[in-house]
Design goal:
Blueprint lengths: L2 E4 L2 E2 L2 E2 L1 H17 L3 E6 L7 H6 L4 E5 L9 H15 L3 E5 L2 H14 L3 E9 L5 E7 L4 E7 L4 E5 L20 E4 L29 E5 L10 H9 L3 E4 L1 H5 L20 E5 L5 H7 L4 E6 L5 H5 L2 E4 L2 H17 L1
Parallel strand pairs: 1-4, 1-6, 4-5, 5-11, 6-10, 7-10, 12-13, 12-14, 14-15, 15-16
Antiparallel strand pairs: 2-3, 7-8, 8-9
Helix pairs in contact: 3-4, 5-9
The structure holds flavin-adenine dinucleotide (FAD).
């Protein structure tokens, strides 16, 4: 009996979501009186085992197979299903990231079990469990009950913190187990064959600084001032749907309900009005700076700081000042 956590990673880089999943699993496992096990899929994830232990995985399983050399939802789901069976897992849990929800949906289908996505509260009972999940980009909380021999759930992105077992970062003893699933070509339905234009390192969802641009940027070329500032602050450029709809930026840069949910230390929203669908993706930022010509814009009202001015003047001025101070 266990809570089994799928530990999301990309080619050996642990996702923030994996730490959040372990944080969410710890109190749940405690309530159930069972241990937390984590599964890392693929040999390249093996070096992440100690971090998984530090964040609460009492046992870390590294699943290896030649079909697990890169991400594939069917292969990851089948691996998790077989391990869940072997452990007789009570719960299989991940975070409701794109990959988390995708793998869990495949897992549920393969197991013939229901799946509850994007939960913000899970109350285990002897009978059906009582769960609250986040719907419609955060504007609706839905109370559901889940009756299934194995609960397959994802935790809403950023609903759980990501703190280690020991806040002083003392390492936890690692218990590592190898797991070799039985897989065949039938799980190689969707596999990554190559990547285009993806930078390794921080992503939009993990970047400590995000500079977002909206319709106010005016054109694709107009984003050069955002790129410049992002480069100086080692951040990433994000955008609103108006920018993607206009073809100024790829969808992978979009922040919001139908884009990426971000949680940087600082989010600079330039020329973005702050529509609810954008806000739900940005609201987890620790500090928000709005740059907008309209003092009544929603983003201005919600931001910690606001600059009422033309972004094409403000952003280059910030970059200039950063360079001046660095050179001084
Ligand atoms: C189902 C659904 C899902 C959606 N999902 C998303 C989503 O994931 N993400 C998202 O962003 N949107 C999403 N939207 C769209 C959303 O409703 C808004 O239309 C969109 O966010 C508006 O983008 P914007 O703020 O860039 O544009 P606008 O609302 O047009 O705002 C532009 C802002 O720029 C300011 N401005 C103009 N010129 C300047 C200047 N020179 N300097 C400074 N400020 C300037 C203006 O004052 C204004 O506040 C969704 C909509 C629907 C219906």
């Amino acid at each position: 009996m266990t809570v089994l956590v799928l530990l999301e990673h990309d080619r050996g880089e642990l996702a923030e979501a994996a730490r959040q999943a372990l944080n969410a699993a710890r109190p749940l496992a405690e309530e159930l009186g069972v241990p937390v096990h984590g599964v890392l899929v693929g040999e390249d994830a093996a070096p992440l085992a100690q971090t998984a232990a530090d964040f609460g995985a009492e046992v870390v399983h590294v699943a290896t197979h030649e079909l697990l050399s890169d991400y594939g939802p069917d292969a990851w789901a089948e691996t998790t299903r077989q391990l869940g069976d072997a452990l007789d897992a009570d719960v299989v849990l991940s975070v409701g990231s794109d990959r988390g929800n995708e793998v869990m949906a495949h897992l549920a289908a393969r197991s013939g079990l229901p799946f509850v996505a994007n939960c913000s509260r899970i109350a285990p009972n002897l009978g059906p469990w009582s769960i609250t999940r986040i719907q419609w980009g955060g504007s609706l909380l839905e109370d559901v009950t889940l009756a299934a021999p194995r609960k397959i759930v994802t935790i809403a992105h950023h609903a759980a913190a990501a703190t280690p077992v020991h806040p002083d970062c003392r390492a936890v003893d690692l218990r590592l187990e190898r797991f070799e699933p039985e897989l065949d070509e039938s799980v190689a339905v969707t596999m990554i064959r190559g990547r285009d234009g993806q930078r390794r390192g921080s992503t939009l969802s993990t970047a400590p600084v995000v500079i977002g641009g909206g319709r106010g940027v005016g054109s694709a070329d107009g984003f050069s001032v955002l790129e410049e500032l992002a480069e100086l602050l080692q951040g990433r450029v994000g955008c609103s749907r108006a920018a993607t709809n206009n073809g100024w930026r790829p969808h992978s840069d979009q922040v919001g309900q139908t884009g990426t949910r971000i949680s940087p230390d600082v989010y600079i929203a330039a020329g973005i009005s702050g529509a609810i669908q954008h806000w739900v993706g940005a609201m987890a930022a620790k500090k928000i700076v709005a740059i907008n010509t309209d003092p009544d814009a929603n983003m201005v009202a919600k931001a910690d700081y606001a600059v009422i001015a033309d972004l094409h003047e403000v952003l280059p001025a910030i970059s200039e000042e950063i360079r001046r101070r660095r050179d001084a």
